[in-house]
Write a structure and sequence with these properties.
Immunoglobulin-like; 8 helices; 3-stranded mixed β-sheet; alpha+beta; 5-stranded mixed β-sheet
C-alpha cells in the first residue's frame, strides 16, 4: 500500500490501540487503515439500519381503525443508491487490500534472508552465516525476507506487531518480507510470534519472539551468537532446547511423546517389530538421521525429519549430550604422561 494512507491511519489507530497491538513495521499503518476503514463502515451501516428498522417499525405500526395502504413495489432511486454505494465501498476495499497483498508478496531487491523452519512444535531461524536460533533476531529499517518451510505439517507464521502472516507448508517454500521500524540504540524491541494453523497437541505452545535490533547491534549480536565456543555436549543441549527436541524428549526421565534422553545411551531399546538393540553411538546416529526407522514400543512414530535441520556436526554433538545423561557413560580420564609422572631431577 502507499504511504499516503499513513496519516489517516495514525488518526484512527495511533500505535495500535484497543483492537491492534503496537505497530512495528512499515506496512502496519496501512493494514490498520484498511482494518479501521472496514470496521467503521460496518459500524455506520449497522447503526443506520438498526435505527431505521426501529423507526419504521414504530412509525408504520398497526393502528386500530386506520386504513391499510398498498405496499410499495418499486423505487428506482433507492435501489440504485443501495447498489452503487456498497459496490463503490467494496471496490475501494478490494483495491487497497490487493495492493497491500501484492506489496507483501513481491520481495524488494537484495533483502536480508532468514530461513524459517517450522516443526511440531517450535520455530527455528537460520541465518546466512549458518547460525540457527529458536528466537528471531532482525535488524531494524532493513528489508527482511522470510523463506518458510515445514518439516512435518502445515504451520503458520504470524507476527501481530508486523501485521504479517503466512502459512508454512511441507515440501514448499513460501516467502514473505517485512521491514521493521527503527529502534533506539541499546533498546531492542521484542514482539511475539504465533503459529496460526492447528498443528497437533502442542499447537498452543508453538510460540517464539522476534527481537528487533539497531543494525549495528544486530551485526554484533550475530557475531557472538555462533556456537563455536561451546563444547559438543553444551552444543547438543542447546540443540535440544532450540530445535524442538524438548517438545518430545525429556532429559529427566519423564515421558512426553518419545523416549527420554536420560539413561538412553547404553540401554537396550525394544522395537515395535519385536527387535531390540543397545543404544550406542551407531544406533543414535541412525535414529536421529532416519526418523521413525525403529519405532519404540509404547510410542507413536511421529518424529519429524531432521534432514535440513541438523548438520553432521550437530548430530555428533547431540549424541555427545545424550551420552552425558546416561548412568552407563563413564568417560575414562586420560592417563598421565611421562612428563607428568617423572619427578624433576635434583
Amino acid at each position: 500500500m502507499t504511504v499516503s494512507m499513513s496519516g489517516l491511519s495514525g488518526i484512527l489507530a495511533d500505535s495500535g490501540g484497543f483492537w491492534m497491538p503496537p505497530r512495528a513495521s512499515t506496512v502496519a499503518a496501512d493494514v490498520d487503515w484498511l482494518f479501521y476503514f472496514i470496521l467503521w463502515i460496518s459500524v455506520f451501516f449497522f447503526v443506520l439500519i438498526l435505527v431505521l428498522l426501529v423507526f419504521f417499525a414504530w412509525k408504520y405500526r398497526y393502528r386500530e381503525g386506520q386504513p391499510v395502504g398498498d405496499a410499495p413495489s418499486h423505487n428506482t432511486a433507492l435501489e440504485l443508491t443501495w447498489t452503487f454505494i456498497p459496490t463503490l465501498l467494496v471496490v475501494i476495499i478490494f483495491y487497497y487490500g490487493f495492493k497491500g497483498f501484492m506489496g507483501l508478496a513481491v520481495v524488494p531487491p537484495d533483502p536480508y534472508e532468514i530461513v524459517v523452519m517450522a516443526h511440531m512444535w517450535s520455530f527455528n531461524f537460520s541465518y546466512p552465516n549458518g547460525h540457527i536460533d529458536d528466537q528471531l533476531h532482525i535488524p531494524a529499517d532493513t528489508p527482511i525476507q522470510f523463506t518458510l518451510n515445514s518439516a512435518d505439517v502445515i504451520h503458520g507464521f504470524y507476527v501481530p506487531a508486523f501485521r504479517v502472516k503466512k502459512d508454512i507448508v511441507p515440501d514448499r517454500y513460501n516467502k514473505i518480507w517485512v521491514q521493521a521500524l527503527p529502534v533506539k540504540a541499546g533498546d531492542p524491541q521484542s514482539y511475539e510470534i504465533y503459529c496460526t494453523q492447528y498443528c497437533g497437541q502442542g499447537h498452543s505452545t508453538m510460540r517464539s519472539n522476534v527481537i528487533v535490533h539497531q543494525p549495528d547491534e544486530f551485526r554484533a549480536w550475530l557475531e557472538k551468537a555462533d556456537l563455536v565456543n561451546m563444547s559438543p555436549p553444551e552444543h547438543g543441549h542447546k540443540i535440544w532446547e532450540t530445535r524442538g527436541c524438548n517438545g518430545c524428549h525429556s532429559i529427566d526421565g519423564s515421558l512426553i511423546r518419545a523416549p527420554s534422553w536420560k539413561d538412553l545411551f547404553g540401554f537396550e531399546q525394544h522395537f515395535q517389530d519385536g527387535g531390540s538393540q543397545i543404544a550406542d553411538e551407531d544406533y543414535l546416529h541412525l535414529v536421529i538421521t532416519n526418523a521413525n526407522i525403529h519405532p519404540i514400543v509404547g510410542f507413536q512414530p511421529v518424529m519429524p525429519t531432521t534432514i535440513g535441520l541438523l548438520k553432521p556436526q550437530d548430530v555428533n554433538d547431540v549424541i555427545a549430550y545424550i551420552k552425558t545423561l546416561s548412568s552407563k557413560y563413564h568417560p575414562a580420564l586420560p592417563k598421565p604422561t611421562t612428563a607428568m609422572t617423572t619427578k624433576p631431577a635434583g
